[in-house]
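Could you help me review a protein record that somebody else here produced? This is what I was given.
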Amino acid sequence: MILCPKCSFDNELGRIFCHQCGAKLDLDKIKPTSGPGRIVRRKKQASPRRLWRIAIEVVLLAVFIWVIYLMTRTPEIQPLRPTNADLMATDNKRVSLERVIYQGKPMATAYQLKITTAELNTYLNSKGWDKPVKQGFNVVPIALRVELNRGVITLSFLGTARWGEGLSKKIFLSYTGLPSIHDGHFEFVPVAASIGDLPIHPAILAHTSLMQNYFQQLFNKLKGEKELLDQLSSITVERDDILLVYQSKNNTPAPTRR
């Protein structure tokens, strides 16, 4: 209704002049109607389905944020700086194993060689990494660590992910496998993996560019060592060392030197 400022008569909506006295009405002073024509605006009530959808979206967002948080967590791993004595010890053991395997003489007893965690870390870190590209996305290696547990070996990689010249973030990868000799071949069967603190299936990591560019890069540099491992009879991983056992075979051919 519209109240007339002159005679206080209630005029119906839509009038410009008062029905009783003819005075011009003030359209800014419109009061709500009290009859059947009253317009009632109600808040739209949320349906149960809509509430469930909102709840699911909130949960998914929380899970996504938690996953990103776990992936970006990185432990502090200091780069390994091997001494000349450490390098000589590991090289001597490798040469000793190579000499026994390729000497072509039958042995009365099996040849056994123990390699400690420290020696294995020293040897792998001596292989070095290829220099990363300067443009686009790349990961600069910081440290590589090998941990031995009963039956399994865990490779831990720490690097700095860089996007161009500006953004950078540390990244941590872990890859655990079971080493064994099967049908005359060395196998490293993956059993676990993680990015940061987030556990993932090892097959997922194996199909990423990070795995191909860094762990695979290391494996490619160990082709000569794999030829030696293929000749072994067994590999036993303990908490602090690996026991390599070789039983002489019929005239094992020496590898081709390149």
About this structure: The chain has six helices and ten strands. Strands lie at 2-3, 10-11, 111-116, 137-149, 152-163, 167-182, 185-195, 198-200, 234-237, 241-246. Helices lie at 48-72, 84-102, 117-125, 202-206, 209-220, 223-230.
